[in-house]
Amino acid sequence: MGEVVDLVSNNAPFFVKDYHDYYKTKRGYHKRSLNSNERWNVIGTMSFMNQPILAYANEIRNAVLIIHREKAHSYYMSKDTYQHMIENNKHTDNKELMIIQNAVHTDLYDRKEVIPFDKIEKFYKEYLK
Question: Which residues, in sequence order, are CB contacts of 60 under 8 Å at separation 6+?
Answer without folding.
Answer: 85, 89, 91, 95
